[in-house]
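User: Please run a holo structure prediction.
Assistant: Happy to. Please share the sequence and the ligand.
User: Here you go; the ligand is flavin-adenine dinucleotide.
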Amino acid sequence: MSEILATDVAIIGAGPVGLFAVFEAGMLGLKSVVVDALDALGGQCTALYPEKPIYDIPAHPAIDGQTLIDKLEAQAAPFAPYYLLDQQVTHLEPIDGGRFRLKTSKGATVEAGAVIVAAGCGAFGPNRPPLDNLSLYESTKGVQYLVRRREDFRDKKVVIAGGGDSAVDWALSLVEVAESVALVHRRPKFRAAPESLRQLDDLAKAGAVDLVVPYQLDGLQGTYGKLTGVRVATLEGEKKVLPADVLLPFYGLAMTLGPIADWGLGLDEARIAVEQRNCATNIPGVFAVGDIATYPGKLKLILSGFAEAATAAHAAQAHIYPDKLVHFEYSTSRGVPGAA
Ligand SMILES: Cc1cc2nc3c(=O)[nH]c(=O)nc-3n(C[C@H](O)[C@H](O)[C@H](O)COP(=O)(O)OP(=O)(O)OC[C@H]3O[C@@H](n4cnc5c(N)ncnc54)[C@H](O)[C@@H]3O)c2cc1C
């Protein structure tokens, strides 16, 4: 039997809100184990828009997704959270003493006094195009679904597929570093912000971005797994091959709540209904925060999630130590225990 990790709070999800919950729990003297299905901290910020500036984080006029996550990780660090990454929480069950047992897809077992679900939209992954040999080219990075660092695409022939904001925004961004950028969409009309569309139009007229419309992806070409071209076709069957080192399909995300849907938490359209005053779910001792939590008037913003993390941490402490009298203290009075 694998070792059992005992902790005060088990946090499901290491997105921005889960990370801030580590800090808030830590300020109340609670230790955290954090589990995430992704192999890196940061949830949507890291996986979907690491280099995009966020403008509505208080006191940061602009901060890009990855920098926000790096700062949240640093803020949580004094409390020595234990991170279990690259594994999904598959089971959650109450055990004796108001505690909970969680199991992960990699066989880890966590026992905790309270659980904070900060699972965003649940497990998420890209919608993959139905192309032959796709897995082969995914494994050689010929097909990628995320841009973690723009620099990785310097001097590359990039083919982007999709008609939404991500496809258009990355075409505008990568054109500054790539050798060539082609944007494939099945319709001439793109769904993106008007200013982005204006810039795209200018770049297309200047020949900097090749607008390949109305075409759909039809196949991948390469030698020994190295991508050399992307075949595209019209609905009428007219085909052509675009030279490519990398294909970036941006067909949106498939989001599934996954195992969370089976834990008996009150779901409201794939989100967990909580009481706003304490983020409590219908299971005493299980709290939900961030994008996955809903209540009347909920704003799905990072800053709302931060406030919910504070609320849930206090409620988790009251669940774990019902008899302990807690004096509310400002961080300025208390300092950060363990920090230099
Ligand atoms: C392109 C884009 C731009 C955005 N811009 C802004 C903005 O400007 N301002 C703003 O406030 N918000 C913005 N958002 C929204 C913001 O990113 C989300 O509100 C925020 O990420 C929610 O944080 P979270 O921690 O609740 O969830 P997430 O960031 O979604 O993280 C949840 C984590 O939980 C994990 N998880 C799920 N289920 C399990 C499980 N069973 N086991 C283990 N792990 C699990 C997931 O892998 C994920 O890492 C933007 C989103 C996108 C996509």
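The two ends are 38 Å apart (CA to CA).
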